Amino acid sequence: MHVHERLSRLRLMAPPIGQCAVAAALAWLVAKDLLGHSRPFFAPIAVVVCIGVGLGQRLRRVVELVVGVSLGVGVGDLLVSWIGSGAWQIALVVALAMAIAVLLDSGSLIVLQAGSSAVLVATLLPPSGTGGIDRMADALVGGLMGLAAVALLPASPSALAHRHAAGMFDTLADALRGIAEAIEQSRSSLAAEALEAARGSQTNVEEFKQALETSREIATISPLHRYRRTRLEGYEKAAVPLDHALRNARVLARRAIVALDGSSALPPWLPGSLRALAGATLLLRDELADGRTPEQAREAILEVASRQGGGRWGFSADVMVAQVRSIIVDLLQATGTDREEAVAALPPLEAPSKRDVSGGT
Question: Could you list the residue ranges that cross the membrane (predicted)?
Answer without folding.
Answer: 12-31, 37-55, 62-80, 86-104, 139-160
